Amino acid sequence: MSGTALLFGAALAIMVWLPQSPLVRIAPSARMAVTFELAPTPAAPPAPPAEVPPGPLQQEQETASTSRSVTPPAPQILPLPEQNQPAAAAAAQPEEASTAARRVEQTTAPPAIANQASTVAARTNSASTAQAALANWQSELLGHLKRFLRYPRPSQSAREEGIAQVTITVDRQGHVLGARLARGSGYPMLDGEAVAMVRRGSPVPPPDADIPGDPVIVTIPILFSLRR
Predict the structure, then answer these.
(1) Could you write out the DSSP letters of every residue in 47-104?
(2) Residues 195, 150: contact at Cβ < 8 Å?
(3) Sign of dihedral through CA atoms 13, 17, 18, 21?
(4) What's residue 124's pLDDT?
(5) In this structure, what CATH number is given to the domain that contains residue 195?
(6) pLDDT per residue over 105-156, tens digit each?
(7) Could you give the CA distance from residue 143 to residue 204 in angstroms, rounded to a whole number?
(8) What per-residue confidence (pLDDT) applies to 146?
(9) Count of domains in the chain?
(10) If we measure between CA atoms, which residue out of 194, 207, 130 comes closest to residue 161?
(11) Phi and psi (nearest 5°) for 151?
């Protein structure tokens, strides 16, 4: 009993003396996943066909396969005879002519617009011609009436000067049908003399043929000036 107790005590002493190794724990996150890729297995090369001497059946099969593999020739498109080419060219010419005609129609203004444009141009030319003729006739008219101008003596003594505008009506023969004061000079004696001068000067040079109207109504300025 005492011997057994001694052995148990010795074993316990040894276990107490031996150092305890630390335990290492592997955390679940320390595990690594490894993926494996399998390479494809190479296919075995096909066995060479056994050489068999050609027999009657094999020759017939080769002949049949040769006849099936022959492709029939594709159909060819033959050119048309030369005598038909002029007819095709003649048919193309009317098409080209009609295309050219359509282009001309597209680039040419419609008749109505062309007539309207020509009418406007004619009116513009006529108006400019009438304006030029009217300016020339007014110059002749003033040159004619200047010979009948009388400067009233009281106006001369009072040093009265000004421009009186008179509207006159003249027929195609140059006869003065009417005269009225359109705008006064500021002096009644000068205004009255302007209207009287026009009446004394009738007949006047007749209007030019390019001036429209019958009679012609025009307003002219009459200048009264003491400066020479």
Answers:
(1) PPPPP----HHHHHHHHHHHHHHPPPPPPP-PPPPGGGHHHHHHHHHHHHHHHHHHHH
(2) no
(3) positive
(4) 66
(5) 3.30.1150.10
(6) 555 556 666 566 666 665 666 678 889 999 999 999 999 999 999 999 999 9
(7) 10
(8) 92
(9) 1
(10) 194
(11) -95, 115
Which domain, by its residues, includes 151?
124-224
From 167, 145, 166, 181, select the one nearest 216 (Cα to Cα). 167
- CA 55 to CA 64: how far, in whole Å? 14
Reference 182, options 211, 154, 222, 122; nearest CA is: 222
The whole-model pTM stands at 0.46
- The span from the CA of 110 to the CA of 116, in Å, is 10
Beta carbons of 188 and 160 less than 8 angstroms apart: no
Rounded to whole angstroms, how far apart are CA atoms 10 and 25?
32
Residue 166 in any domain: the answer is yes
Residue 102 lies in a domain: no
